[in-house]
Amino acid sequence: MKRHPFEPARLISGLTALTLGTAYGPDALGLWHAPGPWFFLTLPAGLLLSGITAAVWTRTRRPHQPDTDTASPEGS
Length: 76
What we know:
The chain is an all-alpha fold. The protein has two helices and no strands. Helix 1 packs antiparallel against helix 2.
């Protein structure tokens, strides 16, 4: 089986969706009443956290490239 790279942003998105789905299961069965604003606050918060994580992960995993804006020794 081919190994896939670790992507923490997908992990956070998946955990957010899993949490919301698990919380609303008992609500559908009538065992628990989920407050309405809870969904509208949890989903955007999870997606925002996932986006921030993706940006930080991409920034830290990018290979360092030399600065090309400095004056070259040939053109001086």
